[in-house]
Amino acid sequence: MDFEFSDEQKAFRKVIREFAEAEIAPYAEEWDRTHRFPTETVLKMGELGLFGLPFPARYGGSEADFTTLCIAIEELARVDQSMAITLEAGVGLGINPIATYGTPEQKERWLPDLVAGRALAAFGLTEPDAGSDAGATKTRAVLDGDEWVINGSKAFITNSGTDITSLVTITARTGDDEISTIIVPAGTPGMTVEPPYRKMGWHASDTHGLRFDDCRVPKENLLGERGRGFHQFLAILDDGRIAVAAMATGVLQACLEDSVRYAKERMAFGKPIGANQAIAFKCADLETMTEAARLLTYKAAWLKDQGRPFKQAAAIAKLYAAEAAVTATREATQIFGGYGFMDETPVARQYRDAKILEIGEGTNEIQRLVISRGLGLPVER
Ligand SMILES: Cc1cc2nc3c(=O)[nH]c(=O)nc-3n(C[C@H](O)[C@H](O)[C@H](O)COP(=O)(O)OP(=O)(O)OC[C@H]3O[C@@H](n4cnc5c(N)ncnc54)[C@H](O)[C@@H]3O)c2cc1C
Question: What pLDDT score does 359 carry?
Fold first, then answer.
């Protein structure tokens, strides 16, 4: 067994940490407070090559392994979950479907800008009445001559309304028992991007509902095989779960570092609070959870990089790391006392932001469902 990252991966982590410390950390509190999506910073992430990491050189990507992408996501989440999810969703939900299922023409048209991070793509699966039960999709796409006519709505779609969003890939019912995936370019008449949600966290991440009223796109915008939309998004979500686990690992790392530092500095009753076992043991638990989440995350990423089955490992990593991140942010907030409850304290932001890690890209309950099925249990949906 080899638990070491390669020299290249270690050097890459250092570059991303320096970037995150210089370009994101100093501004994250302000973006959170003002709910601002910092397009200029996302473009810088693009210039650094982050959006192109796992994609072919032919489209401007660097053909890095999935582990390397996870390192980038972890490092961004350590300072700001909003920028980490912008990358995670941009690559995993935005670009990945086009790169995996697109025709050569679709790839030539969309990938160069997306891979360079000059544009963002979004993935519209969730609907107001179809989240975990994504098969209950009601959005319809009907062929009318050479065009799909789309009617319906999508809920909570990340990166769907930024200044640089170029497309949204949506799932739609193309027959009674048939779900397909269709590319809708940004600005297509009939697609309305609803006002941003008022969220508990991820304030600097872009999230909108979408409405489709007789929205017409060319029939060539079908992504992948007609009727395979359900299968396609399940595969896309397996990758995404490892990436969300990497985000959670970054959150845990931030809680650990902040808590240990504060436990050494903060004085109460004439001694550092970390001299109390009650606080020291919380730090010990943070260290343990961080280590466990990292191992599970990179084991799943490694399996994927080896071309081996990773569905179960991805669900386990996502479930554990997300739950640990929520526990860790709560405990770190406790260590910071009253200051921990102040919005501007990084652990307070991490606390508000962390909850969605247990919900997005498959809730905890859905992960447990996947893991139970992996054990061969006849558990129903
Ligand atoms: C900030 C944010 C960003 C998002 N980004 C995207 C995006 O980019 N694209 C996208 O398509 N979606 C996105 N989502 C949607 C997200 O994936 C869904 O919210 C999530 O899958 C849960 O669906 P739901 O909200 O409809 O909850 P529901 O499915 O209604 O679930 C409600 C509760 O019931 C539980 N439950 C449901 N079914 C079962 C079952 N069979 N057994 C046990 N418990 C069950 C759930 O676990 C949950 O606790 C985003 C959501 C948020 C909040």
Answer: 98
Q: What's the chain's average pLDDT?
A: 97
Please tell me the distance from the alpha carbon of residue 379 to that of residue 369, in angstroms, as a whole number.
7
pLDDT < 50 regions, the chain:
none
Q: Which CATH architecture has domain 7-118?
A: Orthogonal Bundle (1.10)
Helix, strand, coil proportions of the chain in percent (round to 5)?
55, 15, 25
Say how many Å lie between the CA of residue 362 and the centre of ligand 1: 6
Ligand 1 contacts CB of residue 156 (under 6 A): yes
Task: Please state whether the predicted TM-score (pTM) of the whole model is above 0.70.
Answer: yes
Annotated domain spans of the chain: 7-118, 121-226, 230-374
Q: 148-171, pLDDT tens digit by residue?
A: 999 999 999 999 999 999 999 999
d(CA 55, CA 46): 13
CATH of 121-226, one of 3.40.50.300, 2.40.110.10, 3.40.250.10, 2.102.10.10: 2.40.110.10
Which of 120, 126, 137, 138 should be mutated for ligand 1, with most atoms under 8 A from CB? 126
Annotated catalytic residue: which of 74, 75, 323, 361?
361
